[in-house]
Amino acid sequence: MTKKRFFIILGIIIILILGFLVTTFFITNKENPDSTSGISIGGFFPFGQPTQRQGNGDNGANNGNGSSVSPGPIISVPFQPLVQLSSTPTAGMYVFKRNNDTIVQYMEQSTGHVYEVNLKDLIKAKISQSTMTRIHEAWWIDGGNSILARYLRDDGRTIATFSIKTPKLGATVSTSTGGGEALFPDNILDFILTKDGKKIFTLAPNSDNSDEELGFAGDASGYRVKNVFDSKFTEWLPVSFDGKTVWLQTKASQEIAGHLYRLDTSTGALLKVVGGINGLTALPSPDGKYILYSESTLGLFKTYLYDVTKAQKADFPATTLPEKCAWKGSDTLYCLTPDNPKTANYPDEWYQGLISFNDKLWKIDAKTLEATMLYDIVGEKKMIDGTRPMVLDDGSVFLFLNKKDSTLWAYRESPVE
Fold this sequence. Notes:
Number of helices: 2
Oligomer: single chain
Structural class: mainly beta
Strand content: 35-45%
């Protein structure tokens, strides 16, 4: 046998052996899926955006609500304090504890679909399938058991309000726009809920006299209310409600002196607390001892903390609008604070969307006025103008919407257990 023929035969043998090994590997890998096929890079979204999981599966781990979902990919990512929870405009949100988990639920504006995100692993699940179009805003009521939603009817003028039961993971809500658990009267101008969402105060025009505004208070679930307030002034804005006392602010404008009143819904007594302040916008503490408020100045605004008992004001260490703050208890404020705001007519042009902020997140002690910057959002190159803030009772989670695009964001000081 020549050397040439020997090497040809040897080469053929080596090729056959390699082919056999490769074929055996792929067959074994197919029969044993517990390999790297469980790893996915699909979870690495900008700013820690959560992985989406459909919440109506019939197999897999039980979710705690009596339904099941298939387990999603397990992905290990570095902890990020600020995370984007939605990528589409959001109508409203709610945060609560379920056993040992911190859960955020939110409603999508365009579809009315409801999602929930577990902040422990940032897994997102859709918990409703029914479509409710053109939802402008949504609020969780009755301890989170129902959702109050608002939209404009087809005439573009009539404000419609209704509520639905909060969907459970894996269940389907058979509700379309205009239906629901309870229909509220049309053209509710504004409203405010207690912290637990069980009580509501609403403002509506007097159907018998369009020059008057009426106030109603009672149970949010089923809208069981009674008339507690009537006024010939029609530019009121409710800013806080504890079930008995409503704080009513005159609508803010730079060129108009504003006032803040306290209304006792059991007696109808109305008491002015602060007033004569241009561009006044306010946020009382839950116990009514402090009032955070802003005042329009020449092209800008100033922020103060007013001690109701002492009838004294103090410069607030964070220059912001109260709409960008939330109380944790009655002595701590979490505030999104504009970084170098531009000269404008405040708060008018901010309300109108003509001016936008880029915020940083601060925590302020109301008693000492000590301020701590929690997160330099601007420094992280995230352009966020926060609004509709809320904070979990223990301060572990701070939620808000980005006014620039209505997306939902969450700040966590440490990994959520």
